[in-house]
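anyone else get weird line breaks when pasting these?? whatever heres mine. first is seq + tokens for prot A
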Amino acid sequence: MRVVLAEDGVLLREGLIGLLARFGFEVVAAVGDGDALVAAVAEHDPDLVITDIRMPPRFSDEGLRAAVRLRAERPELPVVALSQYVQQRYAAELLDSGNGRHVGYLLKDRVVDVAAFAEALRQVVAGGTVVDPQVVRQLVRRRVDPLARLSPRERDVLALIAEGHSNMAIARRLNVSDAAVGKHVGNILAKLDLPPTDDVNRRVLAVLTYLRGGQDAPDG
């Protein structure tokens, strides 16, 4: 089976090439970033793609996003994401692609049996789905309605944020202090799993979560 491998760590990449060769896989291209992965797949038309998740330039989810892109273009392309952690935002999208066939998501630290790892790769190529149990648990927890974690007051505050009110305006509407509103907002963002980041407007994401939940705005 011909494999395109994406892994930015040189030592791990070379180790995987040797391991795969032992079990009858031919690595036709080994690359270190998401763009190179997409290009290599277009050039080599492999039987299997194995990709890390964190790769240059930002070392966040470039590999997984590249995998989702490849599956969108070729739903039957066998893809295995191999990572040190669960990237929930795109993991579900990857596993849902192609009717959930020819896809896998394995955690590096839990791959302790190389023969079983090779067999998992063969299962994916054959049309199966192989997912680490820890990945399943995290995705199931994420799919529970996140708004259920909020208190009634926090739901009121989020509804008013969705209407476009500032913290000061919310404080006036609810007859509470600005500091109390700020605390509620902080709790909302934490409970919705929206950690601090430089490039994402967390209030907008919170509002989108609220709207997807179909909640009605509070009266008054």
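and prot B, same format (seq, then tokens)
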Amino acid sequence: MSDKSATTRLPPGWTGTAPDADAIFAMAEAALETLPAVFKPHIRDVVIEIAEFADDETLASLDIEHPYDLTGLYEGRPLTERSIDHSGGMPDRVTLYRIPILVEWIEGGERLDWLVRHVLIHEIGHHFGFSDDDMHALEDMA
């Protein structure tokens, strides 16, 4: 006999195998919905992408030696550094790196949707120019 209550706690899109990029993206979208309404207008144009790993150029620019050490990346100009003169540029982007997230999930034992949420909120915090302490407070609010 199966325990149906166990399946209700699995992340959306999880089929028993390693979640694919679409499943991780669905978890990220669900996490965005949990953010306080005051933040939503400011992130609506931030592009969320899922990649397997960061490329060598990205890792080198961050002085990161191993691709498993980077779970997410914000690319853009934080809101705190913008002025009226900044327009017409590329949209800000948050990339979540699927394989490193899955490895951290396996090693850490927390729920995958919570881990995706944590990485996403941390990277969105950079969009707002938040410190690490600010990001922890935001995560507690969401």
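btw re prot B: Confidence is low (pLDDT under 50) at residues 1-8. Residues 25 and 50 are 7 Å apart (CA to CA).
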